[in-house]
Specification:
Layout (H helix, E strand, L loop, with lengths): L1 H22 L9 E5 L6 H17 L3 E5 L6 H9 L6 E5 L2 H8 L11 E17 L7 H10 L5 E4 L5 H14 L4 E4 L3 H9 L5 E5 H9 L3 E6 L25 E9 L4 H15 L2 H9 L3 E2 L4 H22 L5
Parallel strand pairs: 1-2, 1-3, 5-6, 5-7
Antiparallel strand pairs: 3-9, 4-7, 4-8, 4-9, 4-10
Length: 325
């Protein structure tokens, strides 16, 4: 009788273990993960996505694939991710334009707030205003005077409608300087930079990651950086505040986002992996070389930042009178 009881007890323990295993969430990731980039290859978001993907591959021992889906100011890619299966295998490399999209666009195929979930912040960089190397504008004051003499004739390029460190940052400056320029959107920041170098644009405002290689090669000139302090890499470039525009503080952040219904175990795994990767000398050195500041932090902090910026950009967009189809 004692032997029978022991056997039954053993069977019960085995059954309980199997039941517990069945209720546990599946191991993540167990196959390749795709990071969707909402802009063309070569721009800052693309570079950060590939850098992050490589780091996560090392941390989680799975392949992270980067796929570019440019167009509509990043909304094609964002809608694709928002509608994807919420299993953590389709992610978005998000940036502040996702927080601005709901206020900027009259109609969207997705809800940036309810359709996407912020997962983990990777890094950030301030915006910088650039002109061609042969531009007669040697300072912001020069550029403003040029625009005042030719209202609505000068052009500025950006990597897509609604890009905060480019399109909206340029509009912020134009509003504060009380000047007008023609907006020229591109499918990514790299294309706008190419036309600026070719003299086909008068101005581009972009983040420092995009600008740094061209400034180091003297292929364009920086007039001001939209930060509280000068860039350590380019200490001769004044801040907007030093040039007379104290309210011009704007830049870009990059962070992984996922479909809103993504399971909590996936959120936790990805957030932990990003934070662990940011502690490694390899990723720290890579971000420093790109003139980007590592961020990290927990998921609720990223969510709070995103929600705050939704309100911030809504106010700026309304003041600028911007509305896109």
């Amino acid at each position: 009788m004692t032997i029978l009881k022991a056997a039954l007890c053993g069977l019960s323990l085995v059954a309980a273990a199997h039941a517990q295993a069945a209720s546990d969430p599946p191991k993540y990731p167990s196959r390749a993960v795709t990071i969707i980039v909402p802009y063309a290859p070569g721009g800052a978001v693309d570079v950060i996505a590939r850098t992050t993907g490589e780091a996560l591959s090392r941390q989680l021992h799975q392949t992270f694939i980067v796929e570019n889906r440019p167009g509509a100011g990043g909304n094609i890619a964002s809608a694709y991710v928002a509608r994807a299966t919420a299993d953590g295998y389709t992610l978005l490399m998000g940036e502040p334009s996702r927080a601005a999209a709901g206020s900027l666009y009259k109609e969207l195929q997705y809800d940036p707030v309810r359709g996407l979930k912020p997962i983990a912040l990777v890094g950030s960089a301030p915006s910088v205003l650039l002109v061609p190397t042969d531009s007669p504008a040697k300072s912001l004051n020069d550029l403003v005077q040029m625009a005042q003499k030719k209202p609505g004739e000068l052009t500025y390029g950006h990597g897509g409608n609604g890009t905060t460190s480019e399109h909206l940052a340029s509009e912020m400056f134009l509003g504060q300087a009380k000047i007008q320029m023609i907006s020229v959107p591109y499918s990514g920041g790299a294309a706008a930079m190419t036309d600026l170098m070719g003299g086909r644009l008068n101005m581009v405002t972009t983040n420092m990651l995009n600008a740094a290689p061209h400034l180091q090669g003297n292929r364009m000139r920086a007039l001001a950086v939209a930060d509280t302090r000068r860039s350590p890499m380019f200490p001769d470039v004044p801040t907007f505040a030093e040039a007379g525009y104290p309210k011009m503080e704007v830049g870009v952040w990059w962070g992984l986002m996922a479909p809103a219904a993504v399971p909590q175990n996936v959120v936790d795994t990805l957030n932990r992996a990003v934070n662990d990767a940011l502690k490694t000398p390899e990723l720290q050195a890579r971000l420093k070389a790109l003139n980007a500041t590592p961020l990290g932090g927990d998921q609720p902090a990223f969510q709070a930042r995103f929600d705050s910026e939704v309100q911030q950009w809504a106010t700026i967009i309304k003041q600028a009178g911007l509305q896109l189809q």
